[in-house]
Structure formats: C-alpha cells, structure tokens
From TrEMBL, chain A:
Name recorded for this polypeptide: Oxidoreductase
Localization, UniProt: Membrane
Membrane topology listed for this record: Multi-pass membrane protein
One function term, GO molecular function aspect: NADH dehydrogenase (ubiquinone) activity
A GO cellular component annotation in the UniProt record: membrane
Organism in which the protein naturally occurs: Natronococcus pandeyae
From TrEMBL, chain B:
Domain NADH-Ubiquinone oxidoreductase (complex I) chain 5 N-terminal residues, every copy: 83-130
Keywords: Membrane, Transmembrane, Transmembrane helix
Location in the cell: Membrane
Any one GO molecular-function label of the UniProt entry: NADH dehydrogenase (ubiquinone) activity
Transmembrane regions: 6-25, 37-57, 95-117, 129-146, 152-171, 192-211, 231-252, 273-291, 297-319, 340-357, 363-380, 400-420, 440-465, 486-507, 553-575, 656-678
Name of the featured protein: NADH-quinone oxidoreductase subunit L
Transmembrane helix keyword on record: yes
Lineage: Archaea, Methanobacteriati, Methanobacteriota, Stenosarchaea group, Halobacteria
Length: 504, 679
C-alpha cells in the first residue's frame, strides 16, 4: 500500500512518539522549570499523543500487524521477539493515545494553578509511553519494565497535589500496594522462568511440556502473575488502592489511570495468557484450566465494584468503584477463553475497553470540571447543575447511561457482545452476574443524572465559568461515546480481528 | 398483458387514496367524500375486471410478484430454507381475481347506495364514514391479493379495525360502541390463534408464501411425504395443529360457532356497512383465507373434517335462531352466519369450487338483501321491527321484486343462484358423507338448515312486504331515489343469473359443459389450482354414490329443494295472511332458548366475568405482592449489601495489604486444591 517501506523498528512509532514528547517536555522543564506557559505544555502533550494516535490508526489501516494471510503486512516482531506489533497492540495504543490526548487537553484548565507544569505533563507522557509499550511487550522482562514504566509516574501523578493531604496519602497507599503487587508479580515471573526456562512468551509456550514435574510451581507462578495484572486492572483482591487513589488524585489523572492504565493492564494479560499459556497445553501441565481463576475474579470483581458503588455519597468514589466493576466486565474476556476459541468474548472485552476509555474518561473529566468549579464532592453538591451547565450535564447523562449500558449508546453494544460471548462460551453464571450487576449499576448512575437534572440546587453557587479545555475534552468524549454507535461495526471488526490474531 | 399487471397495486391503493381524501378534505367536498369513494372503487372495479380478463387471456394465467422485502433474517426453521424473508407481494390468480371483482363491485355499489342511505338522510360525520369505507375496501383488497400469510394477517387485522370503526359509527348511542368493542374483542380472540399459527408456520417451514415452489404448502407436503418430525410431532399432526390455529382467526372473522356472537350485535352499524361486512369484506375474509390456503388444509384430513363439521353445525345452529327474530336486520345477520357455515362445510368436504361458488353467490344476494333491508328501513322511516311493517309490496315495487330475488336465492330455490351453489355444497358433502359418518352428520345438519333457511327467509319477506300495513309509517312510506334502486337492480340481476357460472348438476346429468367456474379455478399457479387440490383430496376422502352419479345428484337436489319449499311453504301458510300473528308461543320452552340465542352471550360473559376476571385479579395480586415484593427485597438487600461492602475499605493501608494477601491465598488454595498442586 505504502510507496516506501519503513524500517521494522518504526512499527513501535506510537510509543516512540510518546517518549519523544516526554523528552521534549523535559527539555522545556530544564530550560525553564517555572514556566507557566500552559498552552505550550498542554499543547505539546496533546499534539504528541494525537500524533501517536494518528500513526497507530494509520498503521492499522495500512495493515501493519495484520497477518499476511489476511492481506496485511504481517505481524512485526522486534528485538528477537521482545516486542511484537500486531493488531491488538495497535488497538490498545489507540485507546491509550486517545485517553492521553483527552487528559492533556482537560489538564490545561484543571492544573491551572499548579507550580510545576512541565513535570506534570512529562510524567503523563512517560506513563503513556509505558502503557503503549505494555501493549507491544512480548517477553516477561519487557512486560515488567513497561509495567513499572507506567506505574512509577502514576504514583507521582496521584500525589502531585503536594499541598493536598488526600492526594499525598493516596499516592503513598498506591505506591505501597503497587510495590507489594509488583513483588508478587516478579516472584511469579521468576517461578515461570524456573519452570520453563524462558521469558519470551512464545518460548514459554513451546517449553511448557518441559515443565512437567514443576506443574504446581508453574501454576503458582501463573497465579502470582495474575495478581500483578489484577493490580494494574484494579481487580479484586488487588483493587484496594483504586478507590483511594482515584479519589485523592487530580481528576484528570483518575480518568487516565482508570481508563488507559486499566486498558494497558488488560492488554498484557490478554497477551500473556493467549501467547504464553495456551489453555490445553497449560492445563495438561498445571492440572487446572486457568480461565477458572478469571471466572472467579470476574464475578467477584464486578459484584464488589458495583455493590460498593451503589451507596456512595462521593461522586468520585462512586466512579472509582464503578471502574472496578467495569474491570470485572472486561475480565470476562479472559474468563471466556477456552480451548476451542473465545475470540468473540475477548474481542468484546477489547471493544468494551475502548468504549469505556471514552465514557469513563468523560465521566471523570466531568468530576474534574466540578472540582474546577469547586461545587463540592457529593451527589447533593451536584444537585441542579444542569440549569447552569446544560451542555456538560447532557454529556454527563450520555456517559452515565452508556456506562450503565443503555441502548443506543456505545456502552450497550460492548456489554451486549460480552453478554452474548459469555453465553456462547457457556458461562451462564458469569452472564447472569453481568446482567444483575448492570441492573444494579443503573441505580447509581441514574442517581447522578437525577441529581444534576432533576434535583434543585441546595445552595446558591454563583455563576460557573466555562473552561475551554475541559469542555472541549468532555464534549469530545461524549461525541466519541455516541459516535461509537454508527462506527461500531468497524470497531467490532477491528477488535474481533485483533482477538482472532492473538488467539490464533 | 405484462404491463397491465404492473398496475395491480393500484386496485387497493385507489380506495386508500379515497380514505385519505375523505379524511382530509371530506368536509369541503360536495358529497362529503362520497364522490372520491365512488370514483376510487369504480376504478378498482375496472382494474379488477381488467385483471380478470388478463388472467383469463394471459399465457401463465396468474401474476405473482414480490414488491417489497421489509425484513429478512436467518430462520431457525425445522425444515425449509435457511433464511426467511418477510415481504409484501401480490398474487393474482383466478381465485384472487374473482374475489377482487366481487369485493370492488360490492364496495362500489355500497358507496353508491350510501348516497341515498346516508347523505340524503342527513347523517353527520360523513367524511368519517366514507374514510372508513375507503380504508375497509383497501384492507380487504390488499388482503385478497396478498401473496403470503403474514401480509394477509396484517390486512386481516386492518379489516378488523375498520369493522370496529364502522360498526361504532354512531358512537354517541350506547349500543353501537359496545357492539363495535364486542366485534373487535371476539374476532381478536380468534386472531390470537391465527397469529400463533402464522408464527408456527414461519418457524416450521421458513416461508410464508401461499404459492410457488417455496410456499409453505409445498414445504408441508414435502415434509409429510418425507415422514419428518416437526417440533416433536409427526408432520401431518403438526400441519393439523397449525392449520387449526389459523382456523381460529377464520372462525372469529367468519362468525362461526362459537365465535359468532359478535355478528348479530354488529347490526348496530349503518345497514350499508352491514352489507359490506357480510357480503364482501370482514366475514368473507375468513372463508376466503381457507380457500386461499386450501392446499394446506387439504393436507390434513382432521383439519378438513373439523372445518366441515363446524360449518355444518353453524349452518343449522344459526338458521334456527334466525326463525324467531323480529328485527329484519337480525334475521339477515343470522342468515349470514348460517350461509358462511355452508361455505365452510363445502370447503371442509373438499368442495373447493362449491365453497368459492357459494362465496360469490352469497356476496351478491346478501349484499342485495342488506341493501334491500336498508331501502325498507328508509321506506319505514328508520323502523326495523318487521311486526310494524307489512304491505310494502305495492308501494315499493323495485325494492320488493329485487328483495324477493335475493330471498329466493338465499332460500335456495331453483333456478336462483343460491340454489346452484348450495346444492353443490350439499352434494359434495353427501358423496363424502356416504363414506365418512362424521361428514354425514355435518351433511345432515346442513340439510336440515335448508328447511329453516326457507322458513325464516320467507317469514321475513311476508312480514315485511305482504299483508296489511301495521303502522303509520308502513302506510305512508318514504320514497327512495335512483342511488338506491340502481344497486338493487344490479344485484337483483346478479342474484338471478350468477348461478349460470357453474351449473354442475346439469353437467353431471346431461354432460353439457356449463361449469365455467370450475374450469376457471383449474387455472393459476401450480399447486394452487383446483386440479392440484383434487389430486390431494383423492388421498383424503373416499366418495360414494347412491346408485349412480346421476341418481345421487337428483336425490341430493330433490331433498334440498323439497326442504326449501316446505320451509317457505310453512312461512307462507303462517305469515302470508292479511293480519299475521306470532306463533312463537307454540314453541314453548324452545322459544326462550332460541330467543336468547342458546345463551351463547351469557356463557361468554360468564367466561369473561366469572373466570377471566378472577384469574386476572389473582395475577394482579401475585404481581403486587410476590413480584413487587421480590423486586423491593432485592433492592433493599442490595443497598444493605452495598453498605457492608463499602466498609471493607477501611482507609488503613496495612489492612489492605493483609486483605490482598488473604484474598490471593484463598484463590491459591482453591485453585491449588482443584489443580492438585499440593500433592
């Protein structure tokens, strides 16, 4: 298709563009650490992430990562299989880049009074780089490094409001739980290495039989790695950091962590479990089908997330728990994998993560807007906002109903595919849990819509300004959530193709 | 010829346009919408006649085209094609062409008659009336040329809706809205089964086409030949079940026992509407549907026998009730039920030609009688009680003579049209009945009903027109204009001569080919022709003769004629006197039963109030307490659970680490035990 052939390493271009943007921001920072030229910094970040997005989309359309059999340019393996660029990698790079762009634009207003602008944006870009790298990592080593590259800036970002006690405390808790989880994850990696003698994912799969007598050890290793992924995706029981971190962090960072970071956590989970531990071969060695672990995690996670969200008074905390609930939905993608396929359900999970990237980011950005206005944190404080800010509140309605899975919004379709996929995979219990939890979730999502649209304001709050960046990001996220409907066909195809390739 | 069929949709669309015009502009038009209606139905009539000619002259002898596919999908059909399509299409074969002509003719005449009956009598709400007539005609015409069962069902329902609107035309009275509601609800009850039947047929065969190679009839035949199992039943049993479900709609619309109760009440509508409903649209729709998918019924001897038996029973049952009515329209109402019973009997015994023949003849003479009754009602200044009439014979000769022509046809007196078709039905029933005792019983009931038909028909004629005037109105009748006389004369002629269409007895006795209708119905699409049906029926029914064919014909005709004459004679004896009196006391207890219509309404009301209502109340109570209670309970439990779950998050990071590790270990233990890692 293209007139010229790019060298192979350029397949990682989206991640490279993100890291280049981060370095450029460092340059700004070192020249003038106290710069308050927000337009330049936020603009650079936004342009950088949009460029990465554009390149990733271009690659997808040009057929990079599509197997040659399907008329593409073939999956690109780099550095001896340490990295892989296939459709799934590109798909998740798109998710990460979109969310990063939204967060950068929204931060323009939100971080208005912050002292160290450049470090904030460079940390965001570095974390985004880590997440994009996670999408392409194909060896336990690169996975771990990418994971830490995403995590360490995140800890700093959560506690970046240095004068805010909640922010600092949340950052510390996040860091401690993160350290514990990383330890468990690395231990798991070492056990897997011990059992199979390899770190590269394909090599692990090839040497599973050799693990023979160490079946239990390998199983323990796999379980510990699941722990690492559960931490990154905020799944039970590794979710404890999430409510506190999301609540304490600046709202755009909450959006970033709950959407992009979660998606990145899922992509490595998808890749590790489809590439390194094919079900049949693994079951033969460890004596149990690992998808059972995900069935349990999915049900527990979605139930706990939604139940805890139901009676929250604090909007941000409600969204934090709802984010845990959605992690449970996405886990169905792994729970539904079975020896004879499961690409529908995994494709559905990828779709859900994409749509979730829009609607959840949008919801957190609305909270950012409310914090920017200083209206307060509880549902009651939000009462009657619609009379003063109808556009933003309309967008909020879209996010809430889409999160709840009401047709014809994007969230309905991805959830519907998950439901169908779960039924086709024969997981009736999981499908039932999905339905029950979705019904429950409508309760608390609708509560927020009711508060802003129907209730009367408790106190007079004066006029509310209209910050351009936040509004633009919110409206854009809302449009994407709605537009996801007409373009759902291509999205679904892309996700299903990507799932088909990794499952092979 | 090909080009002409492209205009087929216009047959139904003309009246639809009239409906729109009458509704939108009726108040500003000179005759309040009558003119567009007359023009539209006239246009439909002309086009239908052209179609008739085209079908007769064309090489293929039919027209079948799918116009629009509005839904398509994968069907989980038991047999038949993979995908199912829901379409609108047109099928004009000899049967449909004939029916199109009948419907548009009757509708045209009813429109003309309405000028005298509605406009000249100064009725209000005329645009609504003409809009209703237009929509009614449109629905019926579209139903007639529907090429698939689902489209037929849709227009069948629309026909029901229109009858509701028109029966309740005088919605300010107490009785008309109630009658309209009753007609709607009772037919809806039957249509419920029809709908299930449509779904069952679609699910079974993956197609709803009436004709052609991919019709459900062909698929059903193949399934029966292949001894397939459908939904756990043998193919033939399943075909019987679905055919009977569809029959539910037929029984409701064609007012067959036990769903006939709506029809007498429907007399609350304008008499013109009654003429349209009884002769050509609503009631005819049911029987026409059986004729349309006759191939399907012919596959199931059980379904056929039930059709025949229901028909025979209804014919007798309704005829007895007609004998004691005082209202001229009520007598006609029961005669309609009875006559459609004959048609069902005819179709049920395999007399496809006879049934269709009677449908046609009945359309003419029943429209004639209703319009005649309408004329009488005008003459009598809106009095409908026959005991207050009398002596109209000399004052309204046109009405009288045409009415008598219709009455002779209804009573089945040779050589009027009704005789030929009714005789053919009874003959067909007899020859089958000689081999099948159940059919013989149906035949016997049909035969006895001939006597009652002759009696109530001439009782009506004598009470209305003969004797001395028994009220002031009867002494000084209101005049009628050309718009009333013209339709009466047209239909009067048809009632006399329509029988020529199929003089089957003449053919059987002398061998002279006078069976035009039979040869007409032999044409058409393969599988829906009379020839194909005859072949199918060969497997279903054996036929026998008394002596030879000729003697059987003579015996059957003689018997029914004798009974018709004796019925008419009794009426003549009792009522053709200057001062007729009621003879009902002589019936004793039977009179009360007849007068109360065998308590059919009472038991149906009891079913609704004594059975359905308590059930509905119980369901409501169940919903209010158990269902709502469960829902409320779930939400209370959820919120309570939420409150507890929230507390896991203590805010102390060491607790989190402990819980995290505990959770992990629990998971490890579960998986480890299942996976046997600790052994």
């Amino acid at each position: 298709m293209a007139v010229f052939e790019l060298p192979e390493w350029t397949a990682l271009a989206p991640a490279l563009i993100l890291v280049a943007t981060a370095l450029l921001l460092f340059v700004f920072d070192s020249i003038n650490p106290r710069t308050s030229n927000r337009s330049l910094l936020a603009g650079t970040s936004a342009i950088g992430s949009l460029t990465a997005l554009g390149v990733a989309v271009w690659f997808m359309l040009a057929g990079v990562g599509t197997p040659s059999v399907d008329g593409g340019r073939g999956v690109v393996e780099l550095f001896g299989g340490q990295f892989i660029v296939d459709q799934m990698a590109l798909f998740f790079m798109v998710v990460v880049a979109v969310v990063t762009a939204l967060v950068a634009v929204a931060s323009y207003d939100y971080m208005e009074d912050h002292a160290y602008q450049a470090e904030y944006y460079s940390l965001v870009m570095l974390a985004a780089t880590g997440m994009a790298t996670m999408a392409a990592a194909n060896s336990l080593v690169t996975i771990f490094i990418a994971l830490e590259l995403a995590s360490l800036p995140s800890y700093a970002l959560v506690s970046i409001l240095k004068n805010n006690r909640g922010s600092v405390e949340a950052g510390l808790k996040y860091f401690l739980i993160g350290a514990l989880s990383s330890a468990i994850f690395v231990y798991g990696v070492s056990l897997v290495y011990g059992a199979t003698g390899h770190l590269q994912l394909d090599a692990i799969a090839e040497n599973l039989e050799g693990a023979g007598e160490y079946g239990g050890l390998l199983g323990l290793g796999i379980l510990m790695m699941i722990g690492g992924f559960a931490f990154k995706t905020a799944s039970v029981p590794f979710h404890f950091w999430a409510p506190e971190a999301y609540e304490g962090a600046p709202a755009p960072i909450s959006a970033f962590l709950s959407s992009a970071s979660k998606a990145a956590g899922f992509v490595i989970a998808f890749r590790v479990f489809t590439t390194a531990f094919p079900i049949e071969a693994t079951t033969a060695v460890i004596g149990i089908d690992w998808s059972l672990a995900f069935v349990i995690l999915a049900i527990v996670t979605m139930t706990l997330g939604n139940f805890a969200a139901a009676t929250q008074d604090n909007v941000k905390r409600m969204l934090a728990y709802s984010s845990i609930g959605h992690a449970g939905y996405a886990l169905i993608g792994l729970a539904g994998l079975s020896a004879d396929g499961g690409q529908l359900v995994m494709g559905a999970a990828m779709m859900h993560l994409l749509v979730y990237g829009f609607m959840n980011t949008g919801a957190f950005l609305f909270v950012a807007l409310a914090e920017y206005w200083g209206v307060g944190r509880t549902f009651e404080d939000y009462n009657g906002l619609a009379t003063q800010a109808p556009v933003a509140c309309f967008a909020l309605g879209i996010f809430m109903f889409s999160l709840a899975g009401i047709p014809p919004l994007g969230g309905f379709f991805s959830k519907y595919f998950l439901f169908v996929g779960a039924i086709e995979a024969g997981m009736l219990v999981v499908a039932a849990a999905l339905v029950v939890n979705s019904a429950l979730s409508l309760y608390y999502y609708a509560r927020l819509v009711k508060a802003v649209w129907i209730e009367d304001p408790v106190a007079d709050r004066g006029t509310l300004s209209q910050p351009t960046g936040l509004y633009a990001a919110i409206v854009f996220a809302a449009v994407l959530t709605v537009v996801a409907l007409p373009v759902f066909g291509p999205i679904a195809d892309a996700a299903l193709d990507a799932a088909a390739v990794v499952i092979g | 010829m090909e080009g002409l069929f492209d205009y087929a949709p216009a047959i139904a669309l003309f009246p639809l346009a009239a409906f729109v015009i009458a509704l939108a502009f009726g108040n500003y038009l000179p005759k309040k919408g009558a003119i567009p209606g007359i023009v539209a139905t006239g246009g439909s009539l002309a086009l239908s006649l052209a179609m008739l000619a085209a079908v007769a002259g064309g090489e293929e002898g039919y027209y079948h085209d799918t116009l629009y596919t509005w839904a398509a999908g994968d069907a989980a059909s038991e047999v038949g094609p993979e995908g199912i399509e829901f379409t609108f299409g047109i099928l004009i074969d000899p049967l449909a062409a004939l029916m199109l002509v009948i419907v548009s003719l009757i509708s045209f005449l009813v429109h003309v008659f309405s000028l005298g009956y509605m406009n000249d009598e100064g009725e209000t709400g005329l645009p609504r009336y003409y809009a209703g007539l237009g929509l009614f005609t449109f629905s019926m015409l579209a139903f007639v040329y529907a090429d698939n069962l689902l489209m037929a069902f849709m227009f069948f329902e629309l026909v029901g809706l229109c009858s509701f609107l028109l029966i309740g035309f005088w919605f300010r009275t107490r009785s008309a809205p109630s009658a309209a509601k009753k007609a709607f609800l009772v037919t809806r009850f039957g249509d419920y089964f029809f709908l299930i039947g449509v779904i069952a047929i679609a699910a079974t065969f993956g197609t709803l086409q009436f004709a052609g190679n991919d019709s459900f009839i062909a698929a059903a035949e193949a399934a029966i030949d292949g001894n397939e199992q459908l939904f756990g039943f043998g193919a033939e049993t399943w075909v019987t079940i679905t055919a009977l479900l569809v029959l539910g709609g037929v029984v409701g619309k064609s007012a067959q026992f036990p769903l006939h109760t709506w029809l007498p009440d429907a007399m609350e509508g304008p008499t013109t509407v009654s003429a349209l409903i009884h002769a050509a649209t609503m009631v005819a729709a049911g029987v026409y549907l059986v004729a349309r998918m006759f191939g399907y019924y012919a596959l199931s001897p059980t379904a056929l026998a039930i059709v025949a038996f229901v028909g025979g029973f209804t014919a007798l049952f309704a005829a007895t009730m007609g004998c004691v009515k005082d209202d001229v329209k009520q007598v006609l109402a029961y005669s309609t039920i009875s006559q459609y019973g004959y048609m069902m009997l005819g179709l049920g015994v395999g007399g496809y030609v006879a049934g269709v023949f009677h449908l046609m003849n009945h359309a003419f003479f029943k429209a004639l009688l209703f319009l005649g009754a309408g004329a009488v009602i005008i003459l009598m200044h809106h009095e409908q009680n026959m005991w207050k009439m009398g002596g109209l014979k000399d004052k309204a000769p046109v009405t009288y003579w045409t009415f008598v022509a219709g009455a002779l046809a209804l009573a089945g007196i040779i050589p009027f049209s009704g005789f030929w078709s009714k005789d053919e039905i009874l003959y067909d029933a007899l020859i089958v009945g000689l081999e099948e005792p159940l059919i013989l019983a149906a035949y016997a009931m049909g035969l006895v009903a001939v006597f009652f038909t002759g009696f109530y028909t001439f009782r009506m004629v004598f009470l209305t027109f003969h004797g001395k005037p028994r009220s002031e109105a009867a002494e000084d009748p209101h005049g009628v204009g050309w718009s009333i006389k013209l339709p009466l004369l047209t239909l009067g002629v048809l009632a006399v001569v329509a029988g020529i269409a199929n003089l089957a007895p003449v053919y059987k006795l002398t061998g002279i080919e006078l069976t035009f209708l039979e040869s007409w119905l032999e044409g058409g699409l393969e599988g829906t022709t009379y020839v194909a049906y005859t072949e199918l029926l060969g497997d279903v029914y054996d036929t026998g003769f008394i002596g030879t064919e000729s003697t059987t014909v003579l015996i059957a005709a003689g018997l029914s004629l004798a009974l018709a004459f004796s019925g008419a004679g009794v009426a003549w004896k009792l009522y053709n006197v200057p001062e007729p009196v009621r003879h009902t006391e002589k019936l004793g207890g039977a009179y009360d039963v007849l007068r109360s219509n065998y308590y059919q309404d009472e038991y149906q009301v009891w079913l609704a109030e004594g059975l359905t209502l308590p059930l509905a109340r119980a369901a409501d109570r169940f919903d209010q307490t158990v269902i709502d209670g469960t829902v409320d309970g779930v939400s209370t439990a959820s919120l309570f659970g939420s409150d507890r779950v929230k507390r896991i998050q203590t805010g102390i990071v060491t607790n989190y680490a402990a819980l995290l590790v505990t959770g992990f270990i629990v998971l490890l233990i579960v998986l480890g035990i299942l996976g046997g890692w600790f052994v």
